[in-house]
Design brief:
By secondary structure, the chain is an all-alpha fold. The protein folds into two domains: 44-145, no CATH class; 173-392, MetI-like fold (Orthogonal Bundle), CATH 1.10.3720.10. 70% of the residues lie in helices and 2% in strands. It is built from 18 helices and two strands. It has helices at residues 3-40, 44-48, 52-55, 67-79, 83-96, 100-113, 130-141, 147-151, 173-204, 207-218, 225-235, 241-248, 262-285, 292-298, 303-331, 335-340, 348-358, 362-392, and strands at 155-157, 163-165. Strands 1-2 form a two-stranded antiparallel ribbon. The longest helix is centred in the first third of the chain and has 38 residues, at 3-40. It is elongated and about 95 Å long.
Length: 393
């Protein structure tokens, strides 16, 4: 008699969460799996060059390959009738070794004009360089690769398959990742410097004063990120509000460079992310008994000493939680650095956008996304751990 009501309750529960589960599956899990698959899949060369891999089997990777391999490559290139596929092939090979863009176009024209052509060296002397053939063999021989994941951190495999650093000047992904971490850390420290005193003032007040202070912090969350960034774009200009105020007060003789540099990016990102620092700290501070500071003062503690030994340690959980939230959010920022920062202030999200939309290299975009996702997930696990400990205490 009781099994039927239980089954009915379970069906009702599943029906209630089904829309959320479908939403997460289609708009979160599926794109994430697609991104990961794109980062490690490399089917373009194996599709466009189906026979050259077998023809190069046994080649010592030194000197030009035998005529049979050259004939197989010529036939494969001749059979690529889809211009989009050929363009993807050229981009894939050129990303492994520069020079393929002109070489493949020249070779394609030659093999189409002469259906019996088999000596590719006669078409272009670069085909006598084993480096080009190694790139062809590696690209056509496997549909799964770690090339993009390694390239995302400026690594690659040598002829022996060992992982080595990429040649200097060929990529700056690692530098951009370090820059992203550093800028996210600077913004986090600025948010702590501003958010901790603000949260303490808000927690020490009551009534409409507290509501006014919290409303000032929450106001950025009610405004579009693009609108907030555009506002800072205007404020930070040479003739913007800040520089006009400084010059009017006589504090500067001319405009201070606040835009298209790292200082402007830090200012704008700190303003945008400040609520994620203030709210966790505030939620911790309002739970601290208000008689602790007076008690410390009654025992002879100086206000600064009481703050350092009593209030600050108790508020560290909120500071750490807020710092993790700000840091994780800052890692993926794109609009603010793109509009306000200079060429040397772009973060990893700008590089991902370039690979996705500019270079149409979805594999590299996915690989960089995985690196950024891994860093964010590690921080998120730390945040959950701290949050769970805070709930238990």
């Amino acid at each position: 008699m009781t099994r039927q009501p239980r089954l009915s309750k379970r069906i009702t529960s599943f029906a209630l969460i089904a829309p959320l589960a479908l939403f997460l599956a289609f708009f979160f899990v599926a794109p994430l799996v697609t991104m990961m698959k794109t980062a490690v899949s490399d089917p373009v060369a194996s599709i466009a060059l189906p026979t050259v891999s077998a023809a190069l089997d046994g080649w010592d990777r030194e000197g030009a390959p035998p005529v049979e391999a050259q004939q197989a490559l010529a036939n494969d290139i001749r059979n690529v009738s889809n211009d989009e596929l050929f363009g993807d092939l050229v981009r894939r090979l050129n990303s492994a070794k520069s020079g393929f863009r002109t070489l493949m176009t020249k070779t394609r024209n030659a093999v189409i004009e002469d259906p019996n052509l088999s000596d590719l060296v006669s078409v272009d002397r670069r085909w006598s360089d084993p480096g080009f053939w190694v790139a062809v063999q590696d690209a056509a021989g496997a549909s799964l690769t770690d090339r993009n994941l390694l390239a995302a951190v400026d690594l690659q495999r040598d002829a022996n398959g060992d992982i080595i650093d990429a040649p200097e000047g060929t990529s700056a992904n690692r530098t951009t990742l370090f820059r992203t971490m550093i800028m996210a850390g600077i913004v986090t420290l600025c948010c702590i410097a501003v958010g901790l005193p603000f949260a303490m003032v808000a927690a020490s007040t009551t009534g409409w004063k507290r509501q006014l202070l919290l409303g000032a912090v929450l106001l950025p969350l009610w405004t579009s990120l693009l609108v907030r960034t555009a506002a800072w774009y205007i404020i930070l200009q040479d003739n913007g509000l800040i520089n006009l105020t400084l010059q009017t007060l006589g504090l500067t003789n001319g405009p201070v460079p606040l835009i298209f540099n790292r200082l402007g990016v830090v200012i704008a990102m700190t303003h945008v992310l400040l609520p994620f620092m203030v709210l966790p700290i505030f939620s911790v501070l309002i739970g601290i008994p208000k008689n602790l500071m007076p008690a410390a003062a009654s025992l002879g503690a100086h206000p600064i000493r009481a703050f350092l030994l009593v209030l600050l340690p108790l508020s560290l959980r909120g500071v750490v939680s807020g710092a993790l939230l700000v840091f994780m959010s800052a890692l993926g920022y794109y609009i603010t650095p793109a509009l306000i920062g200079g060429a040397k202030d772009q973060m990893i999200s700008s590089v991902i956008a370039y690979y996705a939309t500019g270079a149409a290299n979805w594999g590299m975009a996915g690989a960089l996304g995985i690196v950024l996702l891994a860093a964010t997930m590690i921080l998120y696990v730390v945040y959950l751990r701290l949050s769970s400990e805070e709930v238990r205490t």
